Amino acid sequence: xxxxxxxxxRASNTVNRYNHRATYxxxxxxxxxxxxxxxxVSFSAGPDNPFPATLPxxxxxxxxxYPSADINEPLDCYLHGYxxxxxxxxxxxxxxxxxxxxxxxxxxxxxAAHVDGLVLSLTPNSHSYNxxxxxxxxxxxxxxDEAEKxxxxxxxxxxxxxxxxxxTRVPPNNAEMASTTILRVRIVDGSGxxxxxxxxxxxKDVEDEEVTGRVWTGVVPVYQVLGEPIAAKGNRVEEVxxxxxxxxxxxxxxxxxxxxxxxxx
Length: 265
Description:
The protein is α+β, with helices and mostly antiparallel strands. The chain has helices at 26-34, 86-93, 146-160, 174-179, 203-206, 209-212, 242-264; strands at 22-23, 39-44, 52-62, 76-82, 106-120, 128-142, 180-195, 218-221. It has a single domain, classed as Pnp Oxidase, Chain A (Roll), CATH 2.30.110.10. Helices cover 26% and strands 29% of the residues. A 6-stranded antiparallel β-barrel has the order 2-3-4-7-6-5, surrounded by 4 helices. It is globular, with a radius of gyration of 22 Å. It comes from Helicocarpus griseus UAMH5409.
């Protein structure tokens, strides 16, 4: 097996605190991003606004140029948004980039996090979470090619529910295409951080029988559960389609399995 591809360590993405939990592996970072229902995207709001802006957005890693590229290879991040939103207007104004060259587009930071367990220790200072987090830095440009836009819209739709694009009225009509904007973010660096396992207490507390005799310690697994599908009022299809049922079952099994396994490490 070949060596995993990694993002280069730079000042912007190097993990300093608890760096033994850091990962720069493309596959691990892209997976954390892709499994997040919401991504938080930060950008400069402009010279007249001293505060950076952060938006919750839907996004997914992919490559229109190399559609067969897998999760372990270099990928772009496609973000879905409304045509007149502030981030899309800023990207439109910055399409050529500040520095030119490869750094074309709006500078962005994309972050995601999953909580996988509540780590309950002997003392408050030792409490923690089992978690997976990731950040990406890159330059966002508006997608103008119609074929790439359709690719990205399908990619994002199928990240909500697998194979959903194929089970809807497609392709989108002209009005839908005009009101939707896709931002392609060329990633320049990224990093992840993963904590799993049980409690970690100081030796003096572990050896204190009075404390260990009255304080329960352990991990409460945390995982997202998709509920039973509820039909819309205007729905005319009696049975919940297989692609929805199978997706719900697969996600619930995977999320539960990961959280429990993380607690047991």
